[in-house]
Design a protein that fits this description.
The protein is of the alpha+beta class. It is 41% helix and 17% strand. It is built from 3 helices and 2 strands. A hairpin with a 5-residue loop joins strand 1 and strand 2. The radius of gyration is 14 Å and the shape is globular. The two termini are 20 Å apart.
């Protein structure tokens, strides 16, 4: 799910620990350049998480997303729990 920066900051300040927006993830979120980068956080079912800053060398974040939207939707499709 996409979370706005406002939502991320609210989760970081209002939720208990652990939450995915502490430490390295917090730094990545605070330092990213929204016109060129995207921060992707994976929250695992075991409570762990990891994050990555992704940037395309020639496209804005929006252009890169639009260019790769169908591939991303296929590769990162999430099945409904049974």
């Amino acid at each position: 799910s996409y979370l706005s920066l406002t939502t991320v900051k609210r989760i970081a300040t209002e939720s208990g620990y652990p939450n995915p927006f502490q430490g390295e993830e917090k730094r990545q979120i605070n330092e990213y350049k929204p016109e060129k980068q995207v921060v992707v956080c994976f929250i695992r079912s075991d409570g762990g998480f990891s994050s990555y800053v992704i940037a395309h060398p020639f496209l804005t974040a929006k252009q890169a997303y639009e260019a790769n939207k169908s591939r991303l939707e296929t590769e990162f499709a999430v099945d409904s729990p049974t």
